[in-house]
Amino acid sequence: MGNADFDHQYSHHHQRVEIPPPKPFLKTLMSNVKETLFPDDPFRKFKNQPLSKKISLGLQYFVPILDWAPRYNFQFFKADVIAGITIASLAIPQGISYAGLANLPPVIGLYSSFVPPMIYAMLGSSKHLAIGNVAVPSLLISAMLGKFVNPHENPNLYLQLVFTATFFAGVFQASLGFLRLGFIVDFLSHATILGFMGGAATVVCLQQLKGILGLVQFTHQTDILSVMRSIFSQMHQWRWESGVLGCCFLFFLLLTRYFSKKKPTFFWISAMAPLTSIGYLKKGINPPSYSQLAFSSQYLTIAIKTGVVTSVIALAEGIAVGRSFAILENYDIDGNKEMIAFGLMNIAGSCTSCYLTTGPFSRTAVNFNAGCKTVVSNIVMATAVMITLLFLTPLFHYTPLVVLSSIIIAAMLGIIDYNAAIRLWKVDKYDFLVCVSSYIGVVFGSVEVGLIVAVAMSLLRVLLFVARPKTFVLGKIPNSMTYRSIEQYSVASSVPGVLIIHIDAPIYFANASYLRERISRWIDEEEEKQRTSTEIELQYVILDMSAVGNIDTSGISMLEEVKRIADRRCLKVLLANPGGEVMKKLDKSNFIDTIGKEWIYLTVGEAVNACNYILQTCKFQSKRIDSSATPDDNV
């Protein structure tokens, strides 16, 4: 192919791909750790500051209320008072209902709307998140702990385990925040959470049929088959009075929600409607419960497991809700700060008779629509709940179980987001499959099965992305130097004699074997296609590495093997646009010497031009030889 002539005549016309200067290993390691754990670079504000200023900034970073409190004004306070009172009207019935869902005394639900919101108001970074109990973790607590300790036969031990689980949930959440490991929660994808929450909401609704139908005995299983079997095997015990009352109150709650959605100014109707049903509550604020943390219990392992599982679900929901409303108001929330805030408020809650809390969507939406400006609305809500606990509980009359069941069903129907599932089907079929699998796992198995299925499907997708990266053939866009996928752009045309393959992912041990086989198959397909056409035979394979951010030793071995395969077929391999990290490793492994520096280019266009230059030169030299040949030579 005239490589020596090519090196002299063409190589000086293009810019070489440079190898970055070497860095000390320790410096590189620290840079990678910083990029992983501190992508937001929280330390930049401390640079070039005096010690006193650094201490002040540090306190403001870990206790955000110190940052915004000096700018707080009376206009904000008026808005926060209205919002706080509004969400308190929702917190009271929801707290009672969700406590029942966790098989806890109703007053525990109110305790959980007093201390944790106070803690979050000091440490949280979201302006709109309203703190309280949520349905899915409540159901998880009941399902996981209830298997080992019956809450009706041994309520004291069960309550101790709930407080212990809440304590470890807080420890786990705070640890993730302090260690900057918030990215772990990102493994629960949107599709996973959507399916899991929808399935859990369905299970919760099915469980409430016990109250709606007035049944005394009911299954402790959560799967749909067990629930249906329990319901239809007791048809003779159905109470039509209870069913009518439950359906009427459920219709009333759904009607108020409909009006609040149609006319956002009527948000208070939906928020306060459940208050019409409040029942008897124990008087007095949160008693201390640190002495009830069961660290020496035989069920400690179960409590830790429950705490970790529920903490992840609570984190995922709380941070997702906080981010959603932050986007609407054009401000950012710090995920790691949120984890620390959630963790510390749950640790404090476990010591003050509270169980797991986070930022529920329904309460936060009401808080947002009520016009809250800061987290002071949480303080107002907590104060309203405190006043209720101290003075107003004797005024409440007994609430039938059927009404609490209706409140829970109304809240759960809002969690089942079928429109989002339809959108997943339209946009990404695999995401839809993940969502449906998670939903089916919860409804037909159990909450734990659904969670395992959801996480497994999410991890499977991550593995598929890593182990089976996209590769595609590039072609030239007419009248330009741009090369794009020939599948995506119908006008893109392949270059005669040249195969351009784009690798769309880093090359690691997990995908190296697949990429070797896929590149070989692309070469086979191209050669087979050219055998049936009049085009020039394949002579060059260009690997576009612009999307290859990194490569390991297995990836380098793969490239060496691809080169050997190409050599056996009399093909030349070229690299286009390898990144700095890739070039450093190729240089240290001596692969650059193996392939030749002259065969590594800045762009695909330059690589193609080089190939065309050689093809044209060879063609021209071949014609000269043919024209200079004598008649005797031809004979």
From TrEMBL:
InterPro entries cross-referenced by the UniProt entry: SLC26A/SulP_dom, SLC26A/SulP_fam, STAS_dom, STAS_dom_sf
Keyword Transmembrane appears in the UniProt entry: yes
Record's keyword terms, sorted: Membrane, Transmembrane, Transmembrane helix
Region described as Disordered: spans on this chain: 1-21
Membrane topology value: Multi-pass membrane protein
SUPFAM superfamilies reported for this sequence: SpoIIaa-like (SSF52091)
Coiled-coil regions, chain positions: none
Compartments, record wording: Membrane
Top-level taxon: Eukaryota
Sequence ranges of Basic and acidic residues compositional bias: 1-10
Pfam families the record matches: STAS, Sulfate_transp
STAS domain sequence ranges: 488-611
Keyword Nucleotide-binding carried by entry: no
Transmembrane segments annotated in the record for this chain: 81-99, 119-145, 157-181, 187-206, 238-259, 265-281, 302-327, 339-358, 370-392, 398-420, 432-460
NCBIfam families listed in its UniProt record: sulP
The protein's name: Sulfate transporter 3.1
Organism: Datura stramonium (Jimsonweed)
Lineage: Eukaryota, Viridiplantae, Streptophyta, Embryophyta, Tracheophyta
